[in-house]
Write a structure and sequence with these properties.
- The complex is a heterodimer of chains A (125) and B (199).
- Chain A has 125 residues and is mainly alpha-helical.
- Chain A has 6 helices and 3 strands, in the order H-E-H-H-E-H-H-E-H.
- Chain A has a 3-stranded antiparallel sheet with strand order 2-1-3.
- The longest helix of chain A has 13 residues.
- The radius of gyration of chain A is 16 Å and the shape is globular.
- By secondary structure, chain B is α/β, with parallel strands linked by helices.
- Chain B has one domain: Rossmann fold (3-Layer(aba) Sandwich), CATH 3.40.50.300.
- The relative contact order of chain B is 0.18.
- Classes of the chains: A mainly alpha (125), B alpha/beta (199).
- At the A-B interface, strand 1, helix 2, helix 4, helix 5 and helix 6 of A face strand 1, strand 2, strand 3, strand 4 and helix 6 of B.
Chain lengths: 125, 199
């Protein structure tokens, strides 16, 4: 299986609308990937990136350190919704792992344990 | 297929990175952009995003060819807390007509900093109402504009009509220490709330 979409006919920069990058797919990734979701590349992703199209390769480069969906959108110059579709492709093909935000506690926010770590980190900075 | 689906072997080893987010809200020109860019470890990013995207995923624009998407500027920053915890800051658009977009940003957030300019105090009421209704922890941070230190905390609290447990602090959006102290106040407040809920 290769990552979808065919031969690169976008020579010399993007001459097609960004939605063409996703081949018109719009909701495949759904809303289960919030914009702060973090992406990291897998060993498979690193090994096989040379065969990928340029947008996908860029995402693999970015994902060598944890990077959010939102940052990927900015780096690629595409709306975050388009980044979401591209990241889903790469996650489905095993090139990336997506790390969702932490589960929300009863009070609506992150757990006291996580908030404690955040507080320690901010104080130590 | 020549590979196992979703290999867990990430580049970063076995550590699972976790994102957290804090919103920076307030009226137009109150210092949201300044505060986010002062605190961020990455170059200040102000990005235009189609509002339909943030609230709805990607709209199928082909179905409504004449539908207009509105883009809004949003400030964005990042603070790497440790190798597995990353804090994102979102400066939220002040115009109230974009507020439906805040729901996604506010969902699961640690909390919000509401920046206030005491010369234009009305500008922050909508943000305060929004966070109160959502029960999202927030602090009110009076930005250090000229004359903003002429009012005492009591007077400001009275003018803002916020609950007594909402922290009220004076800050300087241009100063990194001051900004960090503001975030610390917010996280302390959020932690106290979370602990009270859990108890």
């Amino acid at each position: 299986m290769t990552v979808p979409y065919g031969p690169d006919n976008r020579a010399g920069g993007r001459v097609v609308p960004v939605y063409a990058l996703t081949r018109g797919r719009t909701r495949s990734a759904g809303k289960d990937m919030p914009i702060e979701s973090l992406v990291t590349v897998t060993e498979h992703g690193l090994r096989s990136r040379a065969s990928l199209d340029i947008e996908y390769r860029k995402i693999i480069e970015l994902g060598q350190r944890p990077v959010s969906l939102f940052e990927i959108g900015i780096a690629l110059g595409v709306p975050v919704g388009v980044a979401r579709v591209l990241v889903s492709d790469l996650a489905a093909s095993g090139h990336l792992v997506v790390h969702a935000p932490p589960p929300v506690e009863a009070g609506g926010g992150p757990s006291p344990e996580l908030l404690g770590r955040l507080l320690d980190g901010l104080r130590a900075h | 297929m020549d590979f196992a689906p979703t290999s867990p072997g990430t580049r970063a080893g076995s550590i699972t990175p976790t994102p957290l987010k804090i919103l920076v809200a307030g009226g137009f020109g109150v210092g949201k952009t300044t505060m986010v860019s002062t605190l961020s470890e990455i170059p200040p990013l102000s990005t235009e995003q189609a509002i339909t995207e943030l609230s709805e995923g990607v709209d199928d624009l082909s179905a409504v060819p004449d539908k207009r998407t509105t883009t809004v500027a949003m400030d964005f920053g990042r603070i790497t807390i440790d190798n597995s915890l990353i804090l994102y800051l979102f400066g939220t658009p002040g115009q109230s007509r974009f507020w439906f977009m805040w729901d996604e940003l506010a969902s699961g957030a640690v909390g919000a900093v509401v920046l206030v300019d005491l010369r234009r105090i009305d500008d922050c009421f909508a943000a305060i109402d929004y966070f109160e209704n959502r029960r999202l922890p927030f602090v009110v941070a009076v930005n250090g504009f000229p004359g903003n230190d002429e009012f005492g905390a009591e007077a400001v609290r009275e003018a803002l009509v916020v609950d007594p447990d909402v922290p009220l602090i004076w800050t300087d959006a241009r100063d990194v220490e001051s900004g960090r102290a503001t975030l610390v106040s917010l996280v302390e407040h959020a932690l106290a709330r979370a602990a009270a809920t859990a108890a």
